[in-house]
Amino acid sequence: MKKLLKMITLVILVVLIYFAYNLYRLYRLAPNGAKAYSTYSFPNSKYYLENKIDSLVQFDKKIFRNQLDDNPTAKFYNTGRYFTINIDSVDFIFRYKGDSLDWVNSKDSIKIFLTSINSFKKRKLSNEEKLKIVEEQFINRLRE
């Protein structure tokens, strides 16, 4: 009986550690967190950048957004503060810097942070390869 109790305690401890680790990762990528894979600045308003992103997604067949009903991650992250794009089976989740008040008052500059990268490819890509994909096929095109 003592052995079983020790085993249950160990399992609970492992689950709690796993939960705490995932909570830490979530906090690290939270809207007010400082962690990001990369930061990109644009000399435009958020409204202009959103329209440019929508246009790029609409006319480039390599870049798309997952249907919100089919992808709970995309549904969570497409809220006005976040947006998700998919390029070559890799989801890139970005966050706009600031809040709605900052976006209204800052009409000539906006920053976006790449906060999360989720790859659905069979072949694992390094973070450097993923950043190269998003910068060449998306970020640089936004700057054109």
Helix content: 40-55%
Strand content: 15-25%
Mean pLDDT: 79
- Sketch the topology as an H/E string, one letter per element: HEHEHEEHEH
Shape: elongated
What is the β-strand count? 5
Give me the side-by-side strand order of the main sheet.
Answer: 1-5-4-3-2
CATH architectural category of the largest domain: 2-Layer Sandwich
What's the CATH topology name of the largest domain?
Answer: TATA-Binding Protein
Summarize the structure.
This protein has 144 residues and is an alpha+beta fold. Helix content is 48%, strand content 21%.
What can you tell me about this protein's structure?
By secondary structure, this protein is an alpha+beta fold. The protein folds into 2 domains: 1-30; 35-142, TATA-Binding Protein (2-Layer Sandwich). Helices cover 48% and strands 21% of the residues. It has helices at 2-28, 46-59, 72-77, 100-105, 127-142; strands at residues 38-42, 63-64, 82-87, 90-96, 110-119. The chain has a 5-stranded antiparallel sheet with strand order 1-5-4-3-2, covered by helices on one side. A hairpin with a 2-residue loop joins strand 3 and strand 4 (90-96). The longest helix has 27 residues, at 2-28.
